[in-house]
Amino acid sequence: MHTILVAEDDHHIASLIELNLMECGYRVYIAQNGLEALKIFENHDISLILIDIIMPGLDGFNLLKKIREESTVPAIFITSRDQEIDYVMGLGLGADDYLTKPFSMEALKARIAANLRRCYSYTVAERQKSSIMKNGKLMIDTDSYTCTFDGQEIELNAKEIKLLVLFLQNPNKVFTAKQIYRAIWEEDYLYDDNTIRVHMSNIRSKIDPDKTMIKTIRGIGYKMVEVKT
């Protein structure tokens, strides 16, 4: 089940969105201001966030700035501000979409579904059909949990293989430390960057010493780029 965070200070609009999204099967959190939204985001696994620009405490632009410091979660601005400069600024800050009020619930639901599909569904449908996953000279068999590089078997522990599978399933997608920790360790992230850093260092020393495959995105996290053989 996907979880949607709605940062909207208009109670009527927020309630209407919540009702419609819950009818579609989404879990929904409502925040009345930017600071409340940021707190909810930091304490829950959010799949997508809807952000009003004009909010007390912390406006939508600054809320997204803070979120983008640690996450690439899909974000859609929902706002009455329809000036081109607002649209350009919103996308420039990392928003994935922009919807101007008044809007229909059907249009909103379609935008949400499209962004969730683009972000989360592609790899599940296309990349998990086979137990063999490849990128350049790297190959992992998810049935036998074995890894080879350039034809040579590489000894990896379970967490290291799970990390590589996560990256192989999502080429070019940036994962934050929080997302990695929750996906691999399956527990709340405790801001222990050193654990992830050590595992990434071990993986690189075995299959990517030149750091050409697994990239560090400064201030955000890591991603695996597709490598041609």
Give the CATH class of the largest domain. Alpha Beta
Quantity of strands, as a count: 12
Range of helix content: 40-55%
**Largest sheet, strands/sense/barrel:** 5 strands, parallel
Low-confidence stretches: none
Indicate the mean pLDDT.
Answer: 86
- The dominant shape is elongated
Class based on secondary structure composition and strand pairing: alpha/beta
Series of secondary-structure elements, N-terminal to C-terminal: EHEHEHEHEHEEEEHEHHEE
- How many individual helices? 8
Please tell me how large the radius of gyration is: 19 Å
What's the CATH superfamily of the largest domain, by name? Response regulator
Looking at CATH, which topology of the largest domain would you report?
Answer: Rossmann fold
Strand order of the biggest β-sheet: 2-1-3-4-5
Distance between the termini: 37 Å
- The fraction of residues assigned to DSSP E strands is 15-25%
Number of domains: 2
Which CATH-level-2 architecture of the largest domain? 3-Layer(aba) Sandwich
Can you put this structure into words, describing what you see?
This protein has 229 residues and is α/β, with parallel strands linked by helices. It has two domains: 3-125, Rossmann fold (3-Layer(aba) Sandwich); 130-224, Winged helix-like DNA-binding domain superfamily/Winged helix DNA-binding domain (Arc Repressor Mutant, subunit A), CATH 1.10.10.10. Helices cover 43% and strands 21% of the residues. It is built from eight helices and twelve strands. It has a five-stranded parallel β-sheet, sandwiched between helices. The longest helix has 23 residues, at 105-127. The radius of gyration is 19 Å and the shape is elongated.
